[in-house]
Amino acid sequence: MAEMQHVVKVEEGRPAADGRPSVGPTYRSAFARDGFLAPVDGLDSCYDIFRMAVEKYPNNRMLGHRAIVDGKAGAYVWRTYKEVFDIANKIGNSIRSCGLTKGSRCGIYGANSPEWIITMEACNAHGVYCVPLYDTLGAGAIEFILCHAEVEIAFAEEKKVAELLKTFPKSTEFLKTIVSFGKVTQEQKEEVSKYGLSIYSWDEFISLAGDQEFDLPVNQRTDICTIMYTSGTTGDPKGVLISNASIICLIAGVDRLLNSVNERLEETDVYMSYLPLAHIFDRVVEELFMFHGASIGFWRGVSIIMCLPESFSWLCFCTCIDYLKYGAGC
């Protein structure tokens, strides 16, 4: 039998004895040949990933998007880690002012964007479960997830607000607040008011709490940080409870793997966010980049052939993304 290259044996098997069945040998990845990394001191939750990055890399570019000028995509506009932190702090206080506490559920519905990440970090800070919403399973999936997860507040891309309203009246059993990443129309305000809900534009919600500051809860590794709904099962989507520890360990594992193949991340790397944040893969990769103080640029939804400058990391995980030139704010 050829020697296995990608796994190492860490425990021998045992034959059957005294009525107990036999047990085969135990293997683990060769990347962990010498054991697992020690936990990072102070890194106990997903919020700590963001908090520690802000403390270490406050002026690094964190989130970028292409500004639309006269209907055309212009240069990338970037916010630093400190700027993102300040906005997330305001969003978190506004969420708490709506009555949510640790363990409450917040839905996020829309394509990857700076607002998506900012909302997620606000939830992480206050121990609110982040519940990504996506409609690849059909229109009924949004209504089901809102009700099944008992979502109390939902953030949505501007063009997705109308889809949220289609879940009325059933979703209003739990849903009390809607926040648009963009603007809100008068018709939407009138529709929402019929059911006793509140709706805000992004700018309105940022200032909702005013000067009110809420204390952050103690977030532990065993706490749930997100509920991700499956996309590959039959029947209704299944909500998977994911803890802080699960994401922290996964990030550590991916980081270890990259280091082992000489692909160490640097704070100068840039990640093109393309795959849906509603799935755990992209979320983990983006949090890994945050851990290293690197940058995340968001695509606009235009699928064309990829052509990226060398300053962009190879970790794009996509084949068709925004064409990004030198001199376009990269």
Unreliable stretches (pLDDT < 50, length at least 5) are: 303-330
What order do the strands of the largest sheet run in, or round the barrel if closed?
6-5-7-8-9
Count of runs of 4 or more consecutive helical residues: 9
- Which term fits the overall shape? globular
Q: Given this structure, which CATH class is correct?
A: Alpha Beta
State the major sheet: 5 strands, parallel
* Helix-strand sequence: EEHEEHEHEHEHEHEHEEHEHE
First-to-last CA distance: 51 Å
Task: Specify the helix fraction band.
Answer: 25-40%
| Number of strand elements | 13
- The CATH topology is given as Rossmann fold
Beta-sheet strand percentage? 15-25%
Counting structural domains, the number is 1
Characterise the protein shown here.
The structure is a single chain. The protein is globular and about 70 Å long. Helix 1 packs across helix 3 and helix 1 (46-56) packs parallel to helix 9 (280-291). It is of the alpha/beta class. The protein has one domain: ANL, N-terminal domain (Rossmann fold), CATH 3.40.50. It has helices at residues 46-56, 81-97, 114-126, 139-148, 161-165, 186-193, 202-206, 244-260, 280-291; strands at residues 7-11, 26-29, 61-69, 72-80, 105-109, 129-133, 153-156, 177-180, 198-200, 224-229, 239-243, 270-273, 295-298. The strands form 4 sheets. It has a 5-stranded parallel sheet with strand order 6-5-7-8-9, with helices on both faces. Strands 4-3-13-12 form a 4-stranded mixed sheet. Strands 1-2 form a two-stranded antiparallel sheet. One of its GO terms (cellular component) is membrane. Residues 61-301 form the AMP-dependent synthetase/ligase domain. InterPro entries: AMP-binding_CS, AMP-dep_synth/lig_dom, ANL_N_sf. GO terms for molecular function: 4-coumarate-CoA ligase activity; long-chain fatty acid-CoA ligase activity; trans-cinnamate-CoA ligase activity. Its EC number is 6.2.1.12.
